[in-house]
Amino acid sequence: MFNKKESSNPDVFDTLIGINSTLEGNIETEGTIRVDGKINGDVKVKGDVYIGKDANVNGNIVANNVHVSGRVNGNIEAKGILRALSTAQLYGDILVQSLISDEGSIFEGNCKMIPASNSQNSDNGISSKSKSVKDKEKDSNKA
Asked: Which of 35, 97, 122, 142 is the most buried (most CB within 10 A)?
């Protein structure tokens, strides 16, 4: 009605990583994923990603929209919106079309905003091999 971008229904998920679950390895899906547990690997989704407040993702995320309430140690590429809710902890670089950061959220890294016309071209993005801020700190502490 007001030309506002519609986000997918946050109550309908194709994939759910439960609070007591740990996934070791990368995950790729066409749909929407909700993470309430732990993922040690990259997440590549054509739909949206929802990271619950007790969730922990150690890897890069590429998705249409990303909503974070928990902790992410890795880079995030959102072709649409990245929403960091008040309990979010983001440690890594982000490439987004739109960024919403609630009061209380934590973000350590670099942010690059992409215009809507470039949102379909991920070649201008952050390399999935880029290190997160925490990994860069670990490397500098080793030296």
From this structure: 35
